[in-house]
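quick one, 320 residues, struct below
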Amino acid sequence: MIVLASAWSVVEIGFAESQVLGVGEAGTAVADKHIGPKLPAKKVKGISSQPVPDGFSPETLPGYLQGKYSDISWLVTHNAMSNRAEGWWFPNQSFGITRQLNDGVRGLMLDVHMIDNQPFLLHGSSMLGRMPLESGLAEINAFMQQRSDVIITLILECYAPATKVQEAFKASGLSERLHQQESVSPWPRISEMIERDKRLVLFTDSGGGEWRGYHDVWKFCQETHYAVKQVADFSFKRNRGEESNSLLILNHFLTRPIAGLGLAKKANATTVLKSRLEECEKVTKRFPNFVAVDFYECGDTPALLFKFNRQQAGKQQSER
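---
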């Protein structure tokens, strides 16, 4: 018991140190546009409670509709369900899923575990926070009903049977929106996905292929390493996924020993993220399709990624 208490104290100290961030250093004040269910929000020390300004979402990119799914570098939130606003302990994000989507996030990394024979979203332990998978998916579906032009990607770290996950997707109403992709086929244009209303791309690290639209992430994607403690350790070395896989997950977050606002401020700094985006394709020969971050509102992450995408769109249009 003493050992357990000591270990918990170490984690608490690490958490407190990782949360250091000056008040008012992130975000700007515009009207809140939350869609879907919302729990009573907690004040998040050191960041603005207002959404990221409009204009940085992929839908406003020039040539968005003509581009392919694989042509865009999507902003992805790591452990998206774990957030401070809804009371999760040791979170990776400040705000809930709907707020993230409203702010221009278009990819969600979600951990799925079983509790009492039902799939839940949680990270590490249910004591730190949990949400029924169906509830989280319903929240995403509510947003997609409001925004017919968005493409969303889900990347699951899954410890639940594929059949249980499928049931949750059907119950949430999201099943009908699932895009189905063959690993050897080119990705469709955004306009085609919107026209068919197949605007949700789903990847999983377990059970992929057991039902249509439930894609094995490591048959399509490769990733950079995710266990990084300091900016100097960021690299493009491949971790999981075959080198021949067409999509790249650029993991861009720090964990020491857990995530925190202070760490996110360092990782998301313009000088760090901008150079990493620009160097990625040169080193890996792969476009950074998914840029996974913690506390996305820290730094200028949405604006920086938008500018990067705009530059890429210009190059692609000139090559056509």
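The beta strands are 74-77, 107-115, 118-122, 130-132, 152-158, 200-204, 215-216, 221-223, 247-251, 288-293.
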